[in-house]
Amino acid sequence: MSAIGLKDVRKSYGSVEVISSIDLDIEQGEFVVFVGPSGCGKSTLLRMIAGLEGIDGGTLSIDGVVANDIAPARRGIAMVFQSYALYPHMSVYENLAFSLRIAHVDKAEIDRRVRNAAAMLQLEPYLSRRPRALSGGQRQRVAIGRAIVREAKVFLFDEPLSNLDAALRVATRIEIAKLKERLPDTTMIYVTHDQVEAMTLADRIVVLNGGNVEQVGRPVELYESPANLFVAGFIGSPAMNFLPCRLEHQGERTLVQIDGAEQTAIAFGSGGRSGAEAGTLGVRPESLHIAEAGAALITGMVELVEHLGEVTILYVAAGLGQPVLAKLSKTQDFAKGDRVSLSAASTDLYAFDASGDALPRLG
Ligand SMILES: Nc1ncnc2c1ncn2[C@@H]1O[C@H](COP(=O)(O)OP(=O)(O)OP(=O)(O)O)[C@@H](O)[C@H]1O
């Protein structure tokens, strides 16, 4: 039995469908991150689970019980918002205690839970302060503390770190990772735009696009084995390079060749197909290296060099409309106008058919 189950869940605003038939099972104690481009439906889906948005079709179950019509307060779910939503006239202690007071929890029990949450989030020195006398990171910790005191089974986070500056984001992200370890039975669902948050916090990532699930998997799985062009282009920064190629399906295998490449044709699994079609070859910037003579996959002219310290990023014009990016170790010294040849190990290449689906690897 999953902690949260979505079966054919749908949502429309007027005639616009924003969530189309989503199936997803989230296990108790899992940390699941929803990612996807702006407007893909991440927040809507989270709010549907919380009960803040109605469900137009399908079934939401919580601990195996259909929950479509259960009131938000009775779902055992706590939500942490980007805007913190703290009461400005109450102290940190009162903010933490508020929902328990409303629920008529015994005073000693309230005190125990508030102090426990405050200790977990290092908020003890600030319990008598008002929110305005706290930093953004401290306010967000109070917002998280309010979820902890409720001892909710499920925490929902809607971009909780997006109002924080870069350093605080990192510090608070680490706090959330620790929180996950301290509350191993609590199920957490987290919406973010930030790839690093998704990759570092998630047990599983759900990639959404236009109200549909493109792929669900462990972070490394999505990075190493994207199911399609969308996921390949979305996971990883800088994004994967895409090169038009020719796919020749030969029964057991498919040979992939790009125009002008010296690197020999690369074989993928064909899934039993035959014939030929136009496809896309994918290669991550970090997989490219300077090619040996006669082995270039891509040849072009450097149009921009970014020296980032530990790495150098080359933008190479290779006649594809947009530059090919190569992330090279810092020892590489290039300048605008240089001609470069790049290649990658065949095990670091991806191939996608005309409909954008990934071809399986051989072996
Ligand atoms: N109350 C509403 N009425 C009409 N359309 C809405 C409403 N709320 C959201 N939408 C639309 O539903 C779609 C999904 O919105 P949602 O906020 O879930 O996306 P998101 O993936 O969380 O985006 P972002 O990353 O920008 O926050 C968007 O096209 C949005 O404009």
TrEMBL record:
Annotated TM spans: none
Keyword Isomerase: no
Localisation: Cell inner membrane
Keyword Transport: yes
Domain ABC transporter residue range list: 4-235
CC annotations in GO: ATP-binding cassette (ABC) transporter complex, substrate-binding subunit-containing; maltose transport complex
Protein keywords: ATP-binding, Nucleotide-binding, Transport
Domain of life per record: Bacteria
Any one GO molecular-function label of the UniProt entry: ABC-type maltose transporter activity
Name of the protein: Sn-glycerol-3-phosphate ABC transporter ATP-binding protein UgpC
Source species: Devosia oryzisoli
Source lineage: Bacteria, Pseudomonadati, Pseudomonadota, Alphaproteobacteria, Hyphomicrobiales
